[in-house]
Prior knowledge:
α9 (140-146) packs across α14 and α13 packs antiparallel against α14 (237-257). The protein is elongated and about 105 Å long. Among the domains are: 80-176, no CATH class; 202-287. The longest helix has 31 residues, at 201-231. With 316 residues, it is mostly helical. The protein is 63% helix and 0% strand. The chain contains 16 helices and no strands.
Amino acid sequence: MVEKNVSKILIGLVFVLIALQVIQPATSKAPDLPNNSCADCHRQLLFSSESQRQFIDIRIKHLESGISCSIVCHEDKLNKSTGSTYALWSVSTHALFEVTCEKCHGGDPLKVSKQEAHKGISNISIQRANTPEMCGKCHTAELDQFKNSEHFKRLESNQEGPAPACITCHQAHSVRVLTASEIEDFCSNCHNNITGINPTVPKRAESALSSVKELQFEISKARSSVILAKANNKDVTASEADLESAMTILKDIPSVWHRFNLTYFDTEVQKGLIDAKNAEKAMPEETAPPVTPKAPGFEVLLMVSGILAVYLLKRH
């Protein structure tokens, strides 16, 4: 009986060994991977060269992030990036004034084929450090003021640390101008206690930009005074000169801001305020239209009626 059991066990082991021999080749066969998969490039790489080690590092980062790297994937990401860039540009001030892609990137928008349209495109001109000169082709006054700033000096010297360029504040494709209410939070990105770059700047910058509203209001009042004085045949020559000076300062304020010298900026605004207030004197107070006296109100008539009624009662 025991011999029969041993025989059965041996026969079973033989069958197991045969099965393993049949299955093993199938499980160890290399997978049939599609073209352009990660494995096509990476499965043969070894740590034998620096470039191969770099590729393996990239692959590990991709795998950790759950990214599948195929040519189709990269092409899709490029298309999405291009579409997103166009969407940002389409709602920008540049789009409003028909400043199209070739103004910054080069190329020929009149050509039909992609190869001809892209001829001459270079990434060198749009590197962050080169944006001031590129933007300055259209924004001459702003570039002149920016070259007097500490921002430009730091950018030009290639120093380590923050060195703002045009796209730092205005963005590359959305191209927007910050408002006075936004300026404090935006400047705080660099000017704060952590970086140690003058943390008082954001508040002062917001206050400086807000003072421009006061200048706009005073110019509006001055313009009304000059128009009224003219209507009264007054000599407004001096007032018109003051008003023109104030309006010129207001017009130049956006470019003056790019100097990023808040003391200088405030000085220019104050000059404009003085000119505007001088222009308001075109119509002196003594020559202002006389105020029409008010007609007696209901209360006065009621009081007079009451007195008259008492008088009549006493007589009777």
